[in-house]
Amino acid sequence: MPNESRELTVDHRKHPRYHVHWRVAIVFGEQGERETFHGKTYDLSLSGASIYSDHNVFVEEPVKVLLAIPSYVTNKPDKIIEISARMIYTVLSASHHQFRTGLHFQRFKSGGRKILEENLAKRADFDGK
Description:
globular; single chain; 6 strands; 6-stranded antiparallel barrel; alpha+beta; 129 residues; Thrombin, subunit H
């Protein structure tokens, strides 16, 4: 039994996850019928994120994710990057009283991957990881 619980907690992800709570918007639908839902990241990596929102959203087609990366400098606006992603799951989190959605990043727009990578590296340096 002890080996089973240890195996369940092993993380085989390619990229480390960071527990950051950044603002995020998910946009889906066609040009005239777009819907946008807002939330916050629970954890984030270069390949995906889990987010919390007040809405039970799940679609099988790709969605646009707008991620607001906070500045380290006071009074400087957040940096917004755009990412094409697929939703992996949406579940109700009783402990947070919100829906948790898993996202797998597919494509970053205009150097967004490099911006995210640099900011996550700064966080790791800042947090002493």
